[in-house]
């Protein structure tokens, strides 16, 4: 590939940063509580308690979530674009048929969260707990997981082609019937992953390969002895 084409490919793979307005309105309750088909524009959600909400088709654009608590909320059909989440608590959040576009998620907790049949695009997860979460049947494009705990995460039937995993713990992650071509794993823990036969076409650093080889041997019922 000519150098110019390589550069274009690298640029295409880099997630697009969220466009956050320079001035945001501070969100407050009850005025900015979540409601069905609510539209939230250029709001700074600080340490608000939005736990256990159940709303349909909400839209967030150009918003920040800092120490916001959304634990256990059901956000079916939620559309989030150009958002920044820092130290937010999204543990147990359930999103189906929604989207997360042009987002940064930093130092946040997504333990047990479910993003099912969603589109996640141009998003960077960094320093997050995403253990036991599910992205089943979702499409992830231009997504980076960096220094995240992804142990026991479920990517069943998901499309993670080209996704980058950097310095992540992916022990016992599930990749059953996952589309994963050109996904890249670097400095990751991959011991105990299942569905390893679906990882055809991925890129793995030499230091990460042992975990995948053991998983592959287990899937093929190969006994490894000293």
What order do the helices and strands come in, and which of them pair?
Blueprint: H1 3-13, E1 25-26, E2 39-41, E3 43-45, E4 54-56, E5 59-61, E6 64-66, E7 74-76, E8 79-86, E9 94-96, E10 99-106, E11 114-116, E12 119-126, E13 139-146, E14 164-166, E15 184-186, E16 203-204, H2 209-219
Parallel strand pairs: 1-3, 2-5, 3-6, 4-7, 5-8, 6-8, 8-10, 9-11, 10-12, 12-13, 13-14, 14-15, 15-16
Helix content: under 10%
**Helix and strand string, N-terminal first?**
HEEEEEEEEEEEEEEEEH
Oligomerization category of the chains in this entry: single chain
For the biggest sheet, the summary is:
12 strands, parallel
Assign the structural class, choosing from mainly alpha, mainly beta, alpha/beta, alpha+beta, or little secondary structure: mainly beta
Q: Kindly estimate the percentage of residues that lie in beta strands according to DSSP.
A: 25-35%
Q: How many β strands by DSSP?
A: 16
Query: What's the overall average pLDDT, rounded?
Result: 90
Shape: elongated
Low confidence ranges: 1-12
User: Treating each run of at least 4 consecutive H or I residues as one helix, how many helices?
Assistant: 2
In angstroms, what separates the terminal alpha carbons? 44 Å
Radius of gyration: 18 Å
Region (Disordered): 1-21
Pfam family, one: Pentapeptide
Biased composition (Low complexity): 1-19
Protein name: Pentapeptide repeat-containing protein
